């Protein structure tokens, strides 16, 4: 507890007397004791001091009045005047001026050394300082215990920490990451700069992580410590999410490639919380390479809590139970969330199917859809390419390599554009005029290139059956 003038007056060992009429600062905390014999001590005072003097230089009434005014202007809590040295009693001019300016005056008898008063104040300040440190340390320990509480699963530890912080500061707190609320002590609170204080939380990621505190709040030193704990916990959560998504991704990759025995597939999927007997759909997120590491560990909005996130070939997949789900709306919400976090992602939607083959179909549909590059890409139902790619019994990748390999090699050796010409020809529905216009070529040049394609691959783009073979090969090459 802070020491005050009243505390000193109540100490019988000091034998102090309150001679002035001022009482408003008797209960003000004393910041320090300043001993001075200067006529003007104001430049050396910072406020809230008890100024002790024997008045050695205050030999005139004018000097005494000036001394009081300078002490009052400095914001000191009072004057302690030692008698029995230069003055037998407190000068009346000094006392009158002190009463005029409401400055308390304590008479200090000759037998009471200034050192005794200074030591008493210093001891009290030291005790108060240690009490604050002990309180702060106890608060730190309580925050750590909250974070490490048994309810720490699925962010429970972080929620417990922030709930404890709210009690300590006496105000609502909100935590945002990637522009989405991941905790609010009062659901529905929307922080703003006028009524809330934003406290940036460093996480090592460009995720705009902010701890908001509603004004006013009590900050006794715990906010900075809480911020550091939040930072560490968020970094740990990112690592846990990355590990979990890599594990789920490995299982899904084995399923998609048909690398698991049929008897093991269901158990492996259930091991990563995917029910193979229910209808599931896949949302596939593609993003620029520089953003993929952030995407792999970022928190997803609460709407995706029922889903399982996984990383397959540096792409983020979210496997969701299809029952009662509006996939397009959910994909739109995910796209807006990612763009708000500064990740220009494309979300592909797969169809809803059951069993392992259904996951394969959904995956390849989502991947094929995402290739269109829109923010949200709906699937083409039961795409022929997706169905064929989903079957581990059909060597589609080998077929594509065998079919298009000669064209790729010829382009590399001669700098030609046979692959580009073939893609344009198939995309433009076999229109020579449209291909010539698109590639800025003469129609005869297009015809000559199509002849070369037929000779090198053995498939004539002008024939429907061969065109299907070439189109499938291109689709598989693009998806794989």
UniProtKB/TrEMBL annotation:
Gene3D superfamilies: PucR C-terminal helix-turn-helix domain. Pfam families: GGDEF_2 (PF17853), HTH_30 (PF13556), PucR (PF07905). Residues 261-370 form the CdaR GGDEF-like domain. InterPro entries: CdaR-like_regulators, CdaR_GGDEF, PucR_C-HTH_dom, PucR_C-HTH_sf, PucR_dom. Residues 418-475 form the PucR C-terminal helix-turn-helix domain. Residues 8-124 form the Purine catabolism PurC-like domain. PANTHER family: CARBOHYDRATE DIACID REGULATOR, PUCR FAMILY TRANSCRIPTIONAL REGULATOR. Belongs to the CdaR family. This is Purine catabolism regulator. It comes from Psychromicrobium silvestre.
